[in-house]
Amino acid sequence: MLTLSLFLNGIVLGLVYAAVALGFSLVLGVSGVINFAHSITFTFGAYFFWAMYKHVGYLPAMLLAPAAVAVIGFFVERLVIRRVYGQDPLFGLLITLGFAMGMEELIRMVFGPATHNVDAPSFANGVIIFGNFLYSQYRLFIALVAAIMVAAVWLFTEKSRYGTVVKAGMFNSEMVGALGHDLYKMRIWILVLGSFIAGLAGILAAPIWSVKSGMGSSILMPSFLIVLMGGLGSIPGTLVAGLMVGITLSMGVLVAPRFVDIMPYILMGLIVYFWPRGLMGQQNIIE
Amino acid sequence: MRKTIFICLLGTLALFFAPWAATSQAQEPIKIGVISPVSGNYGDHGALERAGMEMALAELGGKILGRPVELVVADSETNADTAGRRVRAFIEVDGIKLLMGAVNSSVAMAVAAVATERQVLYIATNGNSDELTSSKATRYMFRVAPSMASLGRAAGTYAIENLGKRWFFLTHDYSWGHSGTRWAKDVLTKNGGTEVGEVKFPMGTRDFSAQLLQVRDSDADVLMITAAGFDNVALMKQLAEYKIHDKMKVVYTLQEFVDIYPLQPQEHRGYYATEVSWDENDQLKAASEKFHQQYPKAASPVFDNGNYNGYVAIMALAEAIEKAGTADDVEKIIAALEGLEITKNLRDKPTYVDPRTHQFLSKVVMVEGNPQGSGSDIWKIIRTYDATQFDMTPEENPIDLTKK
After folding, report:
1. Helices A38-56 and A183-209 meet at what angle, rounded to 10?
2. In this model, does residue A21 exceed pLDDT 50?
3. B202 contacts A212? CB cut-off 8 A
4. Which of A206, A279, B69, B137 is the most buried (most CB within 10 A)?
5. Strand B166-172 vs strand B194-201: parallel, antiparallel, or unpaired?
6. In this complex, do A114 and B262 lie within 8 Å of one another by their Cβ atoms?
């Protein structure tokens, strides 16, 4: 019974991890930038949401806060990220990491160092009980939102015309540019979309973790890991890798609870050893 | 003749200037170097200990031994290396011989190392690690906050007597977390209780769903937790999310008011060992009220552990300096501190400074979270213990600082 409930818990966790990594994967795939500012957009999402949800209501704030984060994403692209397109990926990593650290201190200055509390929405603030099995409604709610996010992004890249161009840009950006598509514009929109998704993920995490300036740093490594495992820019790959990480973390507690945080790294090592481009990766922009 | 006049003149001059010289020496301020986090994630904890120090100093009229006192603050950034560097500057540039502060043990150890090397006094305020008064103890360091031995055994004793005998442990996987669990287990085994299980979770854990599903699956009646920081805030929220409180009693080996204050009412349920509770007695209630008036924007609305330890550190230093009759001779102040009974400690019984370990011994308290309360009423005191009965015994901690 415990094994089964931990497995189901792993799937829920995995969906959330996939959603968190999604924006990171998209930006890396399309622009070739290892965007460590992803963590700060996650934090901004949580803070904006905390600041507004009691005034405008839960669901409106779930749209408005990520929208505000998306605006920030737009400026991040204009001011920071566009300087490193086409350069060694390390430049992008360093400049975005530095930017994220500066922003984290700014958040502390504006909102203070204290931890802030966010309530779970009233419609999902309970538990579901089947006999001995108990599960939090809020977790199921965030798994649902995460699944919708992943599905929406997948539909966008696979089924829409613009998505096809975006996908083509991941594999051969020069050719896509030569065919007359405005690559710069595309990269802006992908960063805006990535920021929106990260902001929304921050909101989902807020009632479970509470809101603090350093909260974003704890999603950076899992995101990076999932992208490497799943394959750059691959939405199904991100989903599969996210689920693998979630299930490993959840089930790992049964086997060796002290070492659960190392297990995803071991998993990544194995995957990258056998599939250097990740599970579903193909030749891509940064090669 | 000439010589006599010259001597008289010199004598007059000397007499004229003597009182000036004496007063100028008496009026030279006593500088206390405070190493405390100002920025960063623990900035609000640092602010509490500094507020406690300032309140104590104000009560002393800003003076010790007739000399004005100056608190010189340096930001530790909660980083051991930074703290060590700043403390060196205190000693070498400002000529400071009296140090206090640090909200966590790793910073305290770094400061103690420098203090020992340069032979200056250091009073560690808020670190709880057992090492500070055992393996890392030094003649130049004193520690105000109770050890984890005192806190863990207080929590354990309360739990075994009142809550149940089948315990599950949830332990933060680093030395501080291990020691909390170790001392609680000590009580459990000595009283014939049963350990149902233990999960150690790494630092930086944000999601406890898997651990809590396992806890729920056990038949424990007590969940004994040692966890701190942002991880603990997430854990407390998830304890409520997974309705752990409905299945078993939740006990913490250490909890601070400032950490549970931002939580939702239903999330601060449980029994916590802590260092001080604002509702212990009238003196503490008055101090708490005064603190809230003077520092309305502080992260805690009541006199918390940080405040109390900062307050007692200043009072201890003042009483030791008065007793030694000097603020400049570190060795004499150390001798005065050893075995000192600090009376201005806001409690009915003085705080005793154990000369063997340099541990301050007063009380540890048990509080119960109040899920209906808000503001200062989110917990209430249920029991006080004498810290002396729970601190490490000479067999458990053979260090003896009285032997040179």
Report:
1. 60
2. yes
3. no
4. A206
5. parallel
6. yes
Place of tokens 């290892």: A34
Contact A2 B214 (CB under 8 A): yes
pLDDT tens-digit map of A231-264:
887 889 999 999 999 999 888 888 888 888 889 9
Q: Residues A73, A137: contact at Cβ < 8 Å? A: no
Ordered by start, the domain boundaries in chain A are: 2-274
Strands (DSSP E) contained in B14-147 are 30-36, 63-64, 67-75, 98-101, 121-124, 141-143
A152 touches chain B (CB under 8 A): no
Architecture of domain A2-274: Orthogonal Bundle (1.10)
Sign of CA dihedral B96, B100, B101, B104: positive
ipTM of this complex prediction, to 2 decimal places? 0.75
Q: Are B368 and B379 in contact (CB under 8 A)?
A: yes
Distance from CA of B13 to the nearest CA of A (A): 58
DSSP string, B238-250: HHHHTTHHHHSEE
How big is the CA angle at A189 (ends A238 and A33), to the nearest 5 degrees?
A: 55
Is the CB of residue B295 less than 8 Å away from at least one CB of chain A?
A: no
Instruction: Give pTM, 2 decimals.
Output: 0.82
Phi-psi region of B146 (alpha: psi -120 to 50; beta: other; left: phi over 0): beta
Give the pLDDT score at B15.
47
Per the listing, tokens 């502390």 go with: A108
* Cβ contact A2:B213 at 8 Å: yes
Domain with CATH 3.40.50.2300 in chain B: 29-146+282-361, 149-274+364-389
Which residue ranges of chain B lie beneath pLDDT 50?
A: 8, 15-16, 19-24
Pick one of 3.30.70.1060, 3.40.50.1820, 3.40.50.2300, 3.30.70.1230 as the CATH number of B149-274+364-389: 3.40.50.2300
- pLDDT band (50, 70, 90) for residue A87: confident
Pick the closest to residue A140 from B230, B215, B268, B209 (CA basis).
Answer: B209
* The CATH fold of domain B29-146+282-361: Rossmann fold (3.40.50)
Q: What is the sign, positive or negative, of the torsion defined by CA atoms of B17, B21, B24, B26? A: negative
